[in-house]
Amino acid sequence: MVELPLRQESVARTRKIVHVDMDAFYASVEQRDNPSYRGKPLVVGGSPNQRGVVAAASYEARKFGIHSAMPSVTAIAKCPGLIFVRPRFDVYRDISTSIHAIFKRYTDLVEGVALDEAYLDVTENRQNITYASTIARYIKTAIFQSTQLTATAGVSINKFLAKMASGQNKPNGLTVILPEQAVAFVEQLAIEKFHGIGEVTAAKMHSLGIHTGVDLKGRSHRELTHHFGKAGHYYYKIARAEDNRPVEANRVRKSIGAETSFAQGATRKSEIGV
């Protein structure tokens, strides 16, 4: 990959944002710690015999169409040889803490989104490294050396684009969207690929004739807010590759998921701990 400097006239006002996303984090930890799981379809989550749910799926399992939030009984139907492992959140937290210590080598502006992903603003960084892509490579290498786990990174001028970049080349990838590439990248993107646009919203957009970024860009601010409320403003901005949200270093990280599955339906508050 050829690293190009930012255009001189935009250096002062262009941010450098890195999004780091661990690859199949929970499942990869389990495969790392148990060699017999490596190369096999595996999910972290509840047993299908207890109406469990998939919390994470290895890349081998994803080839069968298995994904997070899928009922375990559906997952086992797709792959009868699927391995189920109960989550070890204490282990995942400890690894996440060590990864965040690597981030802090470069910047204090780190926004943890979950245990397995974070945004970093490296516009000004502790080591005075010119290229954000260089920092991303150093981070990926340090994570692997420390944890034997791989991460994928996206680099761009704002959080939305960095997030989209990190989804382009998984696992163990690195994608850079330069300032001059941003608008064209968004215009060609299928609407269901946009971060922040879920299945229901994508279906509604399809019904309105919005299928790609260029279609979204063609709609007025008034029309988008009419159909999608306050979210319409966000859609209007990202269709133009604009996202002014700061990396919030003091943001409270979203809680991680945990579940208790009941073999039989529970209806009393005392049974479900309410």
Features of the shown structure:
274 residues, 5-stranded mixed beta sheet, alpha/beta, globular, 12 helices, single chain, 3-stranded mixed beta sheet, disordered N terminus, disordered C terminus
Shape: globular
What is the residue-averaged pLDDT?
A: 89
Strand content: 5-15%
Distance between the termini: 54 Å
What Rg is obtained from the alpha carbons, in whole angstroms?
20 Å
Give helix and strand order, one letter per element, not per position: EHEEHHEHEEHEHEHHHHHH
Q: How many extended strands?
A: 8
Query: Considering DSSP H and I runs of 4 or more, what fraction of the residues is helical?
Result: 25-40%
Runs with pLDDT <50, length 5+?
Answer: 1-12, 255-274
Structure class: alpha/beta
* Arrangement of strands in the largest sheet: 5-6-1-7-8
In short:
The protein has 274 residues and is an alpha/beta fold. Helix content is 36%, strand content 13%. The chain has twelve helices and eight strands.
Would you mind describing this structure in some detail?
By secondary structure, the chain is α/β, with parallel strands linked by helices. The chain has twelve helices and eight strands. The strands form two sheets. A five-stranded mixed beta sheet has the order 5-6-1-7-8. Strand 5 (110-114) and strand 6 (117-121) form a beta hairpin. Helix 4 packs antiparallel against helix 5 and helix 10 packs across helix 11. The radius of gyration is 20 Å and the shape is globular. The protein starts with 16 loop residues before the first strand and ends with a helix.
